[in-house]
Amino acid sequence: MGTFIMKAFQSVLDVICPGPSQRDVVASCVQTMLKNYNGFKEMSKSYTKMGESLSLCLKASKHSSIERRVIRSLLYKNFTARQISELMNLYEFKLATGRTRINAKSDYETLLNEGYLTSKSHKFSKLNESDIKYAVNYILNESNVTPLSYSHKTVPIGNGNQVILPKLQRKRVREDIIRDYKNLCATNARKPISRTQMYNILNAVTTTDQVSISAIDYVTSSLVNETTETLQFIIEKLVPLTHAKKASDIVQSTAYFLKHEYGQHIMKENDNICYHGLCYALAKNNIVPKLNTSCMQCKFPFFCVSYLQTLLKNYPNVNSTDEQLSDAIRVIKDISTKHKLYMAHITRCRCQSKAIADIDKRLQTECSASQSHRNTSITAILIIDFKMKFEAMSSRESTIEHFGKRGIGWHGAAIIFYLNEPSESEEDGNNSYVPKKYIVYIDQIMEESNKQDGMTVASLLEAILVTMSDQLPFIKNIILQSDNSNQ
Prior knowledge:
By secondary structure, the protein is α/β, with parallel strands linked by helices. It has helices at 2-16, 21-35, 37-60, 66-78, 81-91, 99-114, 129-139, 174-187, 195-205, 218-238, 241-266, 278-282, 300-314, 322-369, 399-402, 454-471; strands spanning 145-158, 161-170, 208-209, 378-386, 410-422, 433-445, 475-481.
C-alpha cells in the first residue's frame, strides 16, 4: 500500500510541478512529516498490533477453514513477504508461498466484491475395481517385480483388517513402470488410472527398488588406484611446482582412461587401428597385423610413464637427491608394468564376457529353433564358485583374508538354461512359443573338511550333476564356467 501511495504521489508531482521546482515541494513535505513524526509512530504501533492480532487468530483457526482463509488474505494483502516471514518466526506459525499466495489474493478480491467466502468442494472419485485389478496384474508381471526370499509385509485394508503379502522388489524404477503401464493402456484402448494412484498401488504392493551390488575390485585397487597415489606422491615430493600441475593432470587422465575407457577401445574391431580389437590384444608379437594407424589414447599410459621419467631426469626438484630420483624412476618403471598387467586383465575380462554373451545367445537361438514346449536335449551353463567360509565372527572377511583359514566350506552353483514357453499372443489358433530364461541355484555345505583342492571340486561337481540328472532330466549337455582360483 505504501509503495502504491508513493507512486501516486510522484505522478501528481510530475504533473503539477515538473522540473527543478519539484525538489522544493518534496523538501517541504519531508519537513511536514518530521513535525508529525509522533503521529506516524502511533500508526506504526497500530500496524504492529494488527499483525499480532492476525497472527494469533491464524494460529487458532482450523486448517482450510473460511476463517483461516480470511485471515490469510488480510495478511498477504497488507504485509510484505519479509514482514510475514518475521511474523511467522515471532508467533511460530507457517504459511506456504506460491499457490497459497495466489489463492489468498483471490480470496481478498472475492471478499471485496461479494463480502463473503464459501467452502470449496472436493470431489473424490472411487476407482473401478476392474481398473485396479488391471493395474495390479501389470505391476505383478515378472518383468517388473521379483519376490524376496525372506520376510513378508503386512498391509492394512481397513476396518482393522490386515493382509500378509510377500515382499516384492521392483526390478525397474517406478517412473518406468508407470510410463509403460500408460502406453499399454493406450494400446488396449483403456483409460489409465492417475499417476498418484499408481504410486500408491506400487508402494502398497511392492517394497523396494532393486539395487545392484558389485564386488570389491581388488585388481583395479592394486594396479590402478594405488599406483596413481604413488605417482602423485612422487610428483608432490620430487617434481618442481612449475611442472607439478601438468604432471598430476596426466596421471589422473591415465587412471581415468584405464578404468573407464580402455575396455571400450579393446572391443573395437575392424577399424584398421592397432591397439584395438581382441585379435590384436591376444595375438603373439610375431603375428601382430602391421597397421600404420595407432591410437593415441591407448598409448597414453606409456606416454605418462615416459613423461614422468624424463621430467625427473631433466627437471628434478632442487631438494631431491640422486638416490631419491633413481628410486622414483625405478618405481615408475614398475608402475608401467602394473599398467600393462591391468590392460591385460581388462582384455581377459572383455574376452570372457564376450564369450559368455555369445554362449547365452547360442542357447537362446537353439531353444527358439525347437517349437516344442520341452526340448528333448537342452544345453545349460553351469557356473560354480566357492563362497566365503562360515566363520565364528560377526563381520565377514574379504576374499583375500579368508583364504587358507579354517571354517565351514560353502560352494555355490548356478544352472542357466532356456525353455520354450507359450507366448501370450495367439494367432489363428496356433500356439507359439518363446524362449524363457531360467536360473536354478544350488548351495553345497562341506562337512568335516574345508579343503578347496581339485578332488574336492570334482566331488562337488559330481554331486551337482547327479542332482541335475534327477531334478532336471531334460538337460543333456553343460558348459562349465568358473574362475581361475581353485576350480
